[in-house]
Amino acid sequence: MKIKKILVSQPEPKDGKSPYIELAEKNGFLVEFRPFIKVEGVPSKEFRKQKVNINDFSAVIFNSKVAIDHFFRIVNDLKIAVPETMKYFCISESVALYLQKYIVYRKRKIFYANNVMDELIVLLAKHKSDKFLVPVSDIHNDDIPNRMVKAKLEYGKAVMYRTVSSDLSDINQEEYDMFIFFSPEGIKSLFHNFPNFEQKDIKIGSFGLSTAQAVKDAGLRLDIQAPLPHLPSMASALEHFIKDAPKSNRK
Fold it and tell me: Do 110 and 214 share a domain, yes or no?
């Protein structure tokens, strides 16, 4: 089976640049992008039910730009006056710089790691007297909270946004030779949109252990998995599959 068309369950890159596009041009197949999931903000009324007082905290931890958007949405909707003394800890510099959309960057206490969770925890541990707020999605892992417990840091979580399935009803899944997924929620969306989905000859690639497990739990065949020690990215795993798949699968 020759790979002719692949669906990547992510938004199409705005600049038109992507390793998937490069692979498609190099190997003569088509690639399309379509996010299988989307993020919606938790309504202010629902947030209030969590009984979280933002100003009871002296610091906020952001692991994504989405978390920043919904933190300040809640702050704005509830007309909360966040003090200038509030500290902001971010997983990376790019996330930290995104704060400029909402605050005067140079006038705030902002700290960031180099996209490494252990490094972020080291930063937090230097501020043990603070109480940290962690904005999260309704579906999230407890990696940060668990690490904070071990570091004996005081924290609280607040659900500020949720992940829901996108409407994919216009997609003809049979047009594609491969689907690539990046989260368990993507698999849920597949079956939410196509309850009677049958994999047949469609190849499935997944990024991350939890996504791979979701593929298997759904009774699907996993054909490509990343990251692996020798395949750190989904793109590299796809390239390896195309190059090394049995000839009978590529003709």
Answer: no
